Amino acid sequence: MTLPSSPYPTPAIVSKLPKVGTTIFTVMSALANQYRSVNLGQGFPDFDCDPRLLDAVDQAMRGGHNQYPPMSGVAELRQAIAAKVRTLYGASYNPDTEITVTAGATQAIFTAIMAVVRPGDDVIVIEPMYDSYLPNIVLAGANPVCVPMTDEFTIDWTRVEAAVTPRTRAILVNTPHNPSGRILRDDDLRALEAIAQAHDLFVIADEVYEHMVFDGQVHASASRYPGLVARSFVISSFGKTYHVTGWKVAYCAAPAAMTAEFRKVHQYLVFTVNTPAQAGLARYMADPAPYLQLPAFYQRKRDLFREGLGKTRFRLLPCEGTYFQVVEYSAISEQPEAEFAQWLTREIGVTAIPMSAFYDAPIERRKVRFCFAKKDETLADALARLSRI
């Protein structure tokens, strides 16, 4: 329904985000619905979370945890986060002054940028990248400086350091990496640590897939490296870890002085995060098994999916973490990535996301991204359709 015409004009709008339109995810999901495609484009599970987590949140609601919690987050949850990070990575964050519960990781990333990045600053980002990074930087009045990964999605740290100027304020990194499925290793984090220290940069470490690292590899968290701990906002997501992306609950760990600035923005952006989910998550985290078992859970799905894709004409790229698999399709088609993804949806009945969507200036490399955070029967259906290519 549209509003009736009015004699009073709407003020002219000068967009703060003139390049932002309908996202590729919205476009591809609409196509998937139209053609009843198996949607492996959406980056979230099609299965339920642990019923014990639902019970914990239900008990919190019924137990009266329904009013505003502390701005920084429920104390028990911040304490549980601090204990987990200390056990896994060795960093001792003070739960009162150095950990903040956020309304999802996207809010945490935006809040970190707004806390320390000033108008006119440069922020280095690694391409391909999660789609919120560039708009967040632009809204802060800063300039994104994009450094592309190699063709096989590794980082050339020499190119990263060459992008640093006196205007550079921060660098934003993501591991395990969405969309490529690659991980950073110890030598990568040490290179990042050296660059950040040499040029006095803040680091925003997007680690939302921290518990999805495969083949016995160890997650190279910024929280493992003292030189990074001192200058990093380290962000993770309960939504990704516990299969509840719709709850939008995450956290940020950072030194006290950085957290103080982070909370100034957080307080007036969302103020706080829903109480029963926080209380339920705090109780559920008493058992570490769910996140400790997550690598094996998703590695089995990865292996199932890769085995099926190996029987097709797609070329598989390495998948070391996350729940995303990138494939190269030049043996199948010469279409640009967006056109190929639409063809795949219409004609084959499987939806993927073109990798070009994850770049500031689209780069065509004949690659698309699939999400395998799906039920086994969903993956089997998708593989049966893809095998017809």
Notes on the structure:
This protein has helices at residues 24-35, 51-62, 75-89, 105-116, 133-139, 157-162, 186-198, 226-229, 238-241, 256-269, 275-284, 289-292, 294-309, 337-348, 376-386, and strands at residues 38-39, 99-102, 122-127, 143-148, 168-174, 202-206, 232-237, 250-253, 315-316, 324-328, 350-351, 353-354, 367-371. With 389 residues, the chain is α/β, with parallel strands linked by helices. It has 2 domains: 24-49 and 293-386, Aspartate Aminotransferase, domain 1 (Alpha-Beta Complex); 51-290, 3-Layer(aba) Sandwich (Aspartate Aminotransferase, domain 2), CATH 3.40.640. The strands form 3 sheets. Strands 2-8-7-6-5-3-4 form a 7-stranded mixed beta sheet, sandwiched between helices. It has a 4-stranded antiparallel beta sheet with strand order 9-10-13-12. It has a two-stranded parallel sheet with strand order 1-11. α4 runs parallel beside α5. The two termini are 42 Å apart. The mean pLDDT is 96.
